[in-house]
Amino acid sequence: MRFLAAAILFLIAVPARAEFDAGLVERKMGEVAADIGGGRLGVGILDLKSGQDWYLAGDERFPMQSVFKAPLGVAVLRQVDRKKLGLEQTVTVTRRDIAMGWSPIAKEMAGDRKSVSVRDLVRGAVSLSDNTAADVLMRLIGGPAAVTAALMESDIAGLRVDRYERELQPEVVGLPPYAPGVPIDPAAWKSAVAAVPEERKAAALQTYLSTDERDTATPKGAVTFLAKLERGELLGVDTTSLMLRAMTESPTGAARLKAGLPAGARLAHKTGTGPDVLGLNAATNDIGIVTLSGGAKFAIAVFLAGSALPEAQREAVHARVMAILAEAAR
After folding, report:
1. Is the distance from CB of 113 to CB of 146 less than 8 angstroms?
2. Structure confidence by residue, pLDDT tens digits, 227-242
3. pTM for the complete prediction?
4. Which pLDDT does position 18 carry in this prediction?
5. Going by DSSP bridges, is the β-strand pair 62-63/216-217 parallel, antiparallel, or unpaired?
6. What three-state secondary structure class fits 123?
7. Which residues form the signal peptide (predicted)?
């Protein structure tokens, strides 16, 4: 009886965490959505303990840009789990493999080739958002279709990966995709983009933002992916830890979801950023798993497409969404 009485007193003294306040999110998110520079905003929030969720445009498709590197990382590490790849296995990256855009591997390459381990390629793609690392990994596992197949195998709808970076990035601005093995000269790439007629750029961007479902995600699909990853349903114990560590250590997006984190919270995430084309930004995204200081965990996905806001204000949208989540979780 004494034990039972003590247990009851303990439960009274330590109240359960309050439920996620979806009503507060609904009210405050309307203010955020009204100030996004004419673009589209998609948000997904899922309480990983209670299962309570909230969505804005949850079933609409948004361009992922580098967000796709998170499911890519999972697809690669699943091959590691199945002993088809080894983390310390090395891959030769040559100048002909370099993708346009952000690529630390390209900057570090002294000669015509560089040997990189699968572990470092995963870290490069997931944590550093290296475009070359992503393309090399996708080729290693059988192409973009292999990533989408891994998602389907795990019953994750709403995410699809269709193109290498060398294919996607040119098409966004109205250029044909670069063929495999064709070297990319950064100066020539910049000149080629500048030479595309405005009418063609505008048409390409409009297609990318509105009708092209390739390389897109829905907020619901994104949070489902994150929830399954956090629960260990996608990978083994060690590879799940490796993946989440890469996402937690990522230095990207300091002014996005990270900027809205309350004290003591931590975030494992993946950003995605598209180019600015004729005054509109293709995509400013961030998805992740947030752990609050009290132990509450949420999957969160924020997609912003076609906004005319400058970068700092687009990123501030993400910070505001995170701050609302934190307030609603108190």
Report:
1. no
2. 999 999 999 999 999 9
3. 0.93
4. 54
5. antiparallel
6. helix
7. 1-18
Exposed/middle/buried for residue 227 (C-beta within 10 Å: 0-12, 13-18, 19+): buried
Token duo for residue 164: 């290498």
pLDDT digits (tens, 9 = 90+) for 281-309: 999 999 999 999 999 999 999 999 999 99
Q: Closest Cα to residue 77, out of 284, 240, 251?
A: 240
**Buried/exposed code over 139-169 (b: 16+ C-beta within 10 A; e: otherwise):** ebbeebebbbebbeebebebbbbbbbbbbbb
User: Is 117 considered catalytic here?
Assistant: no
- The helix (run of H) or strand (run of E) holding residue 205 is helix 198-210
Select which of 66, 103, 250, 307 is catalytic: 66
- pLDDT tens figures, 241-274: 999 999 999 999 999 999 999 999 999 999 999 9
> With helix as H, strand as E and coil as C, how does 39-64 read?
CEEEEEEEECCCCCEEEECCCCCEEC
